[in-house]
Batch of 2 targets.
Target 1
Amino acid sequence: MSARDLIVLGTAGAVPTKTRNQNGYLLRWDGHGLLFDPGEGTQRQMTHAGVSATDLTWICVTHFHGDHCLGVPGVVQRIARDGVRHEVTAVFPASGAVYWRRLRYAASFHDTGVIRELPVSGESMVLDTGDAPFTLTARRLDHFVESYGYRLEEPDGVTMLPAELAARGVRGPLVRRLQEDGAVTGPDGRTVTLEECSVRRPGQKVAFVMDTRLCPAVHELAADADMLIIESTFLDEDLRLAEERSHLTAGQAGAVAAAAGVRHLVLTHFSERYGPEDEERFRGQAAESFQGEITLVHDLDRIPVPRRRTVPLNR
């Protein structure tokens, strides 16, 4: 299986700092590359991270504030310059289509036509992912401008248990038939069921939540996610400011992750008002509610998606 990991290209809020570039998050998934919110400087950050335009198959923009989209022109033109041959799907709020067009054609270049535009609208929309090994859902968040969060899910599967198969004499072509039909007749004449010889493998889920106040969509996106990448722009003592500016605090992000049953919480999108000395306070405030793994990300971090879970098939 190809890599499943998050490559962090930028972690600042509205204003970049000496140590944090503006937003940019590349989720690599079985040969697909989903680039979320390419802020200013993303093309150069990709070079630092050792990834290229040919790694991209999706560009997903949550909304059209500059720190989430001003890197689009460079990325689009790099796709053309590097001769990317495969289709790259661009997802963005339909209400901001005029901004998308301005960004896509911000300067003169030879457009190779590989970018497929897929505007999103409404409260929730399941996107056309073709033959990709996942589904992608967009849900509308609560921000000053129309903004969407994204949720990637793979289908559930099963993991066969070799010891159970061997104990029942099921081997070779019988294993495939068992997987396809759910039951087979074993060599001794007894019926062997799929439930006896396998465990359910829940499909992995990753949620991406940027600029928003708390709203039902945040919880829906995060539900049972293996990894939640979420803004934590402010510390809890600045809750009033966060609400005024339609953002979340670290404590709110932790509470969302705890309520949703998230496995790995990734905090990002930090206001420039805070310095490196404040980083552990973000982690600590999130940890007041969430007891799972927390990563407070820095530019160029690489974070693996947690390993799959398995549960009994009949659950």
Target 2
Amino acid sequence: MNIQPVILVVEDEEDIAELLRFGLMRAGFAVTWVKNLADARSSVKKVLPDLIMLDWMLPDGQGIEWLHQLRGDERTRPLPIIMLTARAQESDKLKGLEGGADDYMTKPFSPKELVARINNVLRRSAPQHVAQVVEFFGCALNDDDHTLSQAGVVETLGNTEFKLLKFLLTHQNKTFSRTQLLDLVWGDHVYIEERTVDVHVLRLRKILQRFAIEAHLETIRGVGYRWRSAA
């Protein structure tokens, strides 16, 4: 079962929002829809989405100004953001992209192209949320059934171990603290102890032992964990 990325749609026009909701859910995304910036801020404060689809002109302000605020906040700076707006001037597009948008689309839009753009942005910014088979050291980590396989050996991973391994594999050679892993893998709205990360890393290591690759899941003393890509 794939992990559904959550898209926050910030759009005040109901017909467009409904079109977005239908197309995105059909493509396998979970959708949260808000009509204004106040509700968008409240939603992001409670839980970070995996991507924001942001209109420029909203009833209580300009999306571009909120974009600047998001990029200026350490918690929300890495959030993938696509602007979807009726403002089609080249100067507006440049302003949006230079202001921190990962992509910029104009209305009217093709739902298929929009889904492709979202997947491209997630592939760059948050590859752990893109359905795929990750291959490494002769192994394959499969989104469809949460299995890790190698030369006929197949192990089904629990949901948390799967998400943890996929995150590390898609961010190889980068060290993450326990707090960062809680935010990025479990979600920053989940309130659990940092010790929980150690428990799941231990479980994951036991699984990796079957494939003789557990040494690549490294503990960086005093910091956290990383996946080492070099053989």
